[in-house]
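#struct-help
A.M.: can someone run this one for me? Single chain, 95 residues.
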Amino acid sequence: MNAPLWDKAKDLLQVLILPTLAWSLWVSRGVEIQRIQLEQSAAEVAELKAKVASLEERAGTTKERLAKIETKLEGMQAQLERIERMLERITQEAR
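D.P.: on it. Structure tokens below:
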């Protein structure tokens, strides 16, 4: 009586449980691979965010420097115009 019961249990294992076990191992492996890929992507995203923040900071510094240079150029332009007027006046007086 134990032999037929064991044969049925063995058949049940072969038909249902073993394929289910193999499938669950395959799925868990896939999930683990996706988790690892997700962690790698998250690390890359964090690194890119840090780079973007650094670039934004540099852009702000560059804008400030550019504004200072523009101000100096405007001042130089005003001085050049003043020098030009002085030279014109000197040349007119010399005639």
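A.M.: thanks! The chain is about 100% helix and 0% strand.
D.P.: also worth noting: The radius of gyration is 40 Å.
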